[in-house]
Amino acid sequence: MKGKTHAGIGAITFFCICDKLPGKFSYIGLIIVMIASLVPDIDHPKSLINKYILPFKNKKTKTVVYLCLALVVLWFDYLYVGEPALKALGISLIFIAVSSHRNGLSHSLGGLIVFTLISGYLGNVYNIPFIVYYFMIGYGMHLLCDMFTKMGIPLFYPFIRRKYKFPLTYKVSSKSGNLFEDFLMIMGIVYTIYRLPGIL
């Protein structure tokens, strides 16, 4: 699924359930959900996030950049901070560096747990209430949506490497796949317009 579709579905899901969340609707919550919707694809060198991080969009550059980031984070944590969340961030950056797209940590429940813990820590440090809820919605919807694609996802990585997908799937970037994603976005926009007056 394309990055813009993931972000859109994350936002639509947030609009659907925000009145049931502890923090109700907030613009910060919406932004966090959309960012979290893009995080699992960080293992792809041409993802929307890596477009702004990597100088060259290939696997070798992704591996080198994320390994360097991991070393910086772990070294900084060792020398100055000593926080479990930074250790988790450093370790997850290593997993991202060595993972190929949809074959590693970022597209698994383990990735959801690790990144949610990190977001929770950042929420405590920067006083962003309910960030864990927002992050889990965005990240969880990304995993759920990718289970509708033919590639599937390694849901229980690293314990089980098998990829899981729903019985009905589509091929990403195919003509029918693009039409399906466009249809989802149009329906989502219509629903959002309908919901907005009751939320804002």
Q: Could you characterize what this model shows?
A:
The chain is mainly alpha-helical and 200 residues long. 64% of the residues lie in helices and 0% in strands. The chain contains eight helices and no strands. Helix 1 packs antiparallel against helix 2. The longest helix has 25 residues. The model has no long low-confidence stretch (mean pLDDT 87).
| Rounded mean pLDDT score | 87
Instruction: Please state roughly what percent of the residues sit in beta strands, choosing from under 5%, 5-15%, 15-25%, 25-35%, 35-45% or over 45%.
Output: under 5%
Q: If helices are DSSP runs of H or I spanning 4 or more residues, what is the number of helices?
A: 8
Shape descriptor:
globular
Content-based structural category: mainly alpha
Share of helical residues: 55-70%
Low-pLDDT windows of residues? none
End-to-end Cα distance, whole Å, is: 29 Å
Tally of extended strands? Answer: 0
H and E order: HHHHHHHH
How can the largest sheet be summarized? none
Rg, rounded, reads 17 Å
Organism: Clostridium ganghwense
Protein name: Metal-dependent hydrolase
GO molecular function, one term: hydrolase activity
Keywords: Hydrolase, Membrane, Transmembrane, Transmembrane helix
